[in-house]
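Hi W.,

Here's what went into the run:
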Amino acid sequence: MRWRTPDLKSAFKINIQEHEMNQMKKMTGLAGIFLLLGILIAFNAVLKPVRLRADVTEDKLYTLSDGTKQLLSDLDRDVTLKFYFSKSNDRLPVPLKNFASRVRDLLSEYESRSGGYLVVEEYDPKPDSDEEEWAQRYGLQPQTVDMFGLDGGLYFGIVAVSGNREAVIPVLSQSAEPRLEYLLTRMVSEVSSEKSAKVGIMSALPVNGSSAMNPMMMQQGAGRSWAVVSEIERQYQVEQVDMTATNIAEDIDTLVLIHPADISEDTLYALDQFVLRGGRLLAFTDAMCITAQESVNPQMMQMGMPPPQTESDLNALTSAWGIEMMPGQLAADEAAASLLNAGGGRAQRNATWLSLREQNINREDIATGSLNDLMLPFAGAFEVAASNGVEVTELVFTADDGFTAGTMAARTGDIDIPALKKRVPLALRITGTFKTAFPDREEGLKESEKPGVVILVSDVDMLADRIATDSVNFMGQTIVQPRNDNLTFAVNMVEQLCGSEALIGLRSRNAFDRPFDRVIALEKEAAFKWKAEEERLNAQLQATQAKLSQLQQSRDDGQQMFLTPEQEAEIKKFREEVFQTQQSLKEVRKSLRRDIEMLGVRLKAFNILGIPLLVAAFGIGRGIWMKKTR
Amino acid sequence: MNEAASHVLAVAKREWRAYFDSPVAYVFIIIFLMLAGFFTFSLAQFYEAGQADLNGFFQWHPWLYMILVPAVAMRLWAEERRSGTIELLFTVSVTPLQALLGKFLAAWLFMLLALLLTFPVPMTAAYLGSPDGGTIVSGYIGSGLLAGAYVAAGIFTSALTRNQVISFILAVVIGLFLILAGYPPVTDLLSRWAPLWMVDGVASFSFMTHYETLQRGVIDLRDLVYFASVMIFMLFTTQVVLKSKVGR
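Here's what came out:
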């Protein structure tokens, strides 16, 4: 359509076109602008509830996992998710608002996938309102965003309600974002099931303080239960299961088995049947359990009782699934070696006392994704042979150049490093259809009725209070606090097993973190060079200092009150040497750091100046060329 | 239709050439790239942060565009009107809409070219670590749309006045409003007297809310529609302004 230049004079002419012209003017004039604005706003508003979006992130960070989708589509009772967020608080920082909107987005994703069974309600608990009272009643904790606390408290939490069951996330923090889907799915799964999970605990060790299972240990009197047991008791209904049980009660959902030493075949059969009928098993076994060794009661020894078994495994059961723990062998990893007291004030690195970090822990799995510090003293080594219809996920493992060492060698610390090195799994999760380990028994199940889950861990000592906790005396009170992530590991495993199918194998969304691998590699390389140089210079320093003190001693022995000028000069020279060595150590550190800093400076210069210089060169070249051709 | 499209392209080509026939385009691109690099590496501390993502890079784009895009767009109409070439343009069988779209296209493509020349930043991230390719692509889409919205606003203010400086200032003000609409100092001020729905309404006008989703790696229809709406509205308003002013 061609556009005609408006002519003011003709606009006043009364003719047939006047009406049309007015119409056009209206459409294209101010009214048109407001009309379009209205239409656009309305259109945007109409689209607001439409959720048509593509998650283009590599790890599908903003898409629900299959487990969650399955859980939501299987819902058969109404669940309400109450999202409490003080959005009217005018001091909210923008990142928090944005995080809240991501939470809201995720919640509506849950709602839209539930087939109408899940409803999201949003509440804005203003100070002294009914909403605030309810938030408090649900146990939500207000946080302060203002340093003076003038903001009246910010509520940011979620409550899941279904029938008479409820679950709460009292405070949502941005650091929990990688686990957000897990937390939500867990809440939904928790409230949508009829009963709460029941955990059985079975152990040959006095994990409950006084051990009712082992009458010999009763003499020690009632001790405290292990922190891990107290932690599980705090969250679940717990039942003790006898180590000699020949049947595991039907109502137990998850069985935690700690150090099943001297386990009888009938008990193993009971475990086998428990797993086959869908019970979940978390077993901690050990090739060398130092805790069992330490729990030796002198009275027991006097009575001629055999010392407690330090070795335990479930090979008779797990070999049917293709998994065995190597008897008499411990997992070793030089990179994860811990410093141990070797007697006589000497410290020695021991590659079988494992201090595990991020690289040894499965970052993908939600139950282990947030862990980064585990200590496994003398852990056994699993061998995974055939899959046998089950799927095995390694949760904790040594580095790729891990190996195994005999228990005797591990004790003394004189470990030979074998030629054959490989990653040794330390904790495994096995899922799938299990086959019985007792095919010859006539009665009982031969294969699991529905897919089951078993988690095997090759160390028991990691759960012991001495390894997992620190006791701090604070104003006369003993406060037990975790020393590492060992307890979290155990509790996460129990939590995962007690939850629904959906929670098992749910991915952690930790991929938000993308470190500079190249810089890390440079740092490692620098640290390596530094260590070598430091050792060389330190040896030099020690030698020099030894000579120096020798010289000074010779002065003190009384035979000679004064040093000869030569000796004085010698001491001065040595002192100078010590100073020089220390200086060169400093220099080495600086120069190693320089590589990393230089890389940063080069990249910065390249990014700020590189392309602009090219553009300038191109522009100047083109200018000159244009002048010439003109 | 074909003829109209070729008219649009002809105008776009003319404008594009006008950019590159003078040193202004080069100076502009150089300033843009240097500022983008400086903001990313010095202010956002990209290297020191140690994360192979482009958050520190994209987060500054709204502010960069706020200053630089009005400079690119200010002469588009103002210059034509000042020198009187606008009548000449419309006599050669080009409709104002075609001219408008052509100019918009040229300015937007020019901004996209400047944006594409920031490729060393993702390359640096890829060299240092393993960034998420999807997030980078969607971040660039977001930034490109943002640039388009600013260009549309700049064209609008350029049509309002013959004075390029006034056009520039007005465009900066509009850009500032669209950035700040979702920012606490502004919402604070609003929430003193306005009801919550209005505060939220104003905040949803902000570029930032919509740009942020794209930066995260989520391409949401709602955000695409928002940016398209801003562009359509600005261009439509420009056309209304042109119609009422040209020929007087």
